[in-house]
Amino acid sequence: MNKEILHSAVNFLARREHSEKELVNKLKTKDYAPEEISVVIEHLIAKDYLSDQRFADSVFRYRLSRGFGWRYIQNELQQKGVSAALIKALGQEQNTDWYHQAELAYNKRFALKEIKDQKDKAKRIRFLQYRGFSIDEIMAVLQTD
Questions:
Q1: For each of the chain's 145 residues, which pLDDT tens digit applies?
Q2: pTM summary value
Q3: DSSP string spanning the chain?
């Protein structure tokens, strides 16, 4: 096993959690051989230094605290290479009230401002859609406003 690749990988993991795909891509940018990278990745997984489960939990908690919805979080995890089964399990084990999360994000952005017209309402809907909330969650928030 190449010690240089191992040190680079551990250095990345010391800063924050990474998905397997993300770490492989970062190591590839340093022009290491793919065969050597895969040996190091297997070693890190065996030692539990690299875990897609921990990475997914970390991303979920961070994005939730920043006011993002389930769809946004799901999409980000898919792009980072987390398996669909792991994402589905994460969604089922979290008992998050997404309607409440949508309301918190909405209130943080728009506070006590009244909806002026249809253009303003559309802007608010787009904001919540970008944040990853479903149309049901968005409409529930706008009904209370």
A1: 789 999 999 999 999 999 999 999 999 999 899 999 999 999 999 999 999 999 999 999 999 999 999 999 999 999 999 999 999 999 999 889 999 999 999 999 998 788 889 999 999 999 999 999 999 999 999 987 6
A2: 0.89
A3: --HHHHHHHHHHHHHS---HHHHHHHHHHTT--HHHHHHHHHHHHHTTS--HHHHHHHHHHHHHHTT--HHHHHHHHHHTT--HHHHHHHHHH----HHHHHHHHHHHHHTTPPP-SHHHHHHHHHHHHHTT--HHHHHHHHHH-
